[in-house]
Structures are given as C-alpha cells and as structure tokens.
Amino acid sequence: DVAVTGVQTCALPIYLHVLRLLISVASLWGITLAISSGAPGAPIIAAIALAFIYSAPWAIRTRNVPIFDSLTSALHFVLPPISGLLLASEFSFTWMPTLTAFALWNVGNHLLGAIQDIAPDRDAGMSSTATRFGARATAALSFCAYFGASAALAIGALAGSVPLLAAMLPAVSALSVAPLLLERAGIDAAR
Q1: Does the reported pTM lie above 0.70?
Q2: In DSSP terms, which residues pair with 11 in a beta bridge?
Q3: What does R_g of the chain's alpha carbons equal in angstroms?
Q4: What is the pLDDT of residues 42-81, one digit of tens each?
Q5: Helix axes 129-159 and 68-88, enclosed angle (nearest 10)
Q6: CA within 13 Å, CB half, 165
Q7: What is the DSSP annotation of 124-138?
Q8: CA-to-CA distance for 128 and 176, rounded, in angstroms?
Q9: What pLDDT does residue 12 have?
Q10: Exposed, middle or buried, 6 (CB in 10 Å: 0-12/13-18/19+)?
Q11: Which sign, positive or negative, has the C-alpha torsion 174, 175, 179, 181?
C-alpha cells in the first residue's frame, strides 16, 4: 500500500485514486445516459451525478469552475422535480415557466450565497463565479437571475399556467441583493 498525497492534503492509498477515477467516469456516464434515455427516473440519476461532480474534491468539481458552479448547483435541485413530474404524467410545456423560474432562482441563490464565501474560497485557492468576478458583479448576476425567474413566471401567468402573484416572489429575493448593488452596505447587509 503506497500512499499518494491527495487533493485535500491527506495521504491516500493508491486504490482510492483508481476508485475516484472510476466514480468520476461513472458520474459522467450517468449524466450522458440519463439525458439520452428519456426515462422518467433519469433526471434523478443526472441530479446525483451533478451533485457528485459539483462537490467531490477529486472529480471534475464544478464548484471550482466559474458560472458552472451555479448552473450545476441549480440543476441538481431542478432535476428531481422534473423526474417526479415525468413519473406522474407526460411532459407538458406548461411546466416550463415554473421549472425555468425554479432553475433561475436557484442560480441566483447560489450566487448570493457564494458572495459570503469569497475570502475563504480565495484563501483556499478555489475559483468560483464570486471569486472570479467579485462581490458586486456576482450580486448583479444574482439580481438578474432572480428577476429572470420573475419574468419566467410572468410569462407563465400570461399563458395561464401560474398565478400572477407567483411572478412577484422571486422579485423579493432580488430586492435582498439591492444593498450589494448600491454599494452602501457590505456582504452582511445582503444576509
């Protein structure tokens, strides 16, 4: 058992490096199969794989890839409801405004949460949307994602698939970002 230094600065047996590679390949394969199969439960497989490649320190780790950090995080929250909807009925375009809004709200939420981690992430040598673009630009992206969610729900309201009041809810989240955009307050004001 020869030990090799791991990404997290711990000594790992060589067989774990092989296992990590196999799990990474299996996750990518799972995402590919899930997307191509069209099976109702396939989004669950994709969600699990996305959660893995977002977090695992020895895989692709999309949490260290600006923009993909927020997209991967949002998708792994959106895919399980899609799977549930597909298991309960056939696909309907009436779901799209709500699912799009849910995805955009999750992107905005991830971006806003990442702002408070800028200093520790930079200290740890991690790259994310927030560390790459800074607090104010990341707050602006979060603001846009939240308002994009409101716009998606407004479109759904016009189509009759969601109540108009629902379109206002993500706008409230956008307002929580306003102190960061106005530069009158620091990160604590957005919490």
Answers
A1: yes
A2: 5
A3: 19
A4: 787 778 778 877 877 666 778 888 898 999 999 989 988 8
A5: 30
A6: 0
A7: TT---HHHHHHHHHH
A8: 21
A9: 54
A10: middle
A11: positive
